[in-house]
Design goal:
Elements lengths: L2 H26 L1 H6 L16 H22 L4 H26 L5 H31 L1
Helix pairs in contact: 1-3, 1-5, 3-5, 4-5
Length: 140
Amino acid sequence: MDIKKLVIGGITGGILYFFLGWLVYGNLLAEFMKTHPGTVTGVERAMEDMNWMYLVIGSLLSGFLIAFIFVKGNVDSLMNGLVTGVILGLLMSAAFDTIMYATTNIISKKMMLADVLASGAVSGIVGAIVGLVLGKLNKA
């Protein structure tokens, strides 16, 4: 395993996940998610109460997960990264969200669908850029 690719891809992916998460979930879908919760209320933190350290850690871990999969699978182009990222995002989010829907009251079906689609889109963008970066590292 090429540790340099893993670290560079993981950090790149983590930064992208953080900022795209802020854009998509914190802004574009924020109102939709608030109006389509599960039956449990009061579980969402206000922006000023967010635990930013754990949000950054989670974003970095997501970046390292996608980088690990890409390095092991030799994903090293923009298009291959896009396709692989979309599939990973859809499958990971659908798996997590369906389990959450089945076992808790936190998520509704509409919220689940929106999250799965948004996760696919975000992971596709992250995957495209990480794939491009890994391809550039191959040439260097």
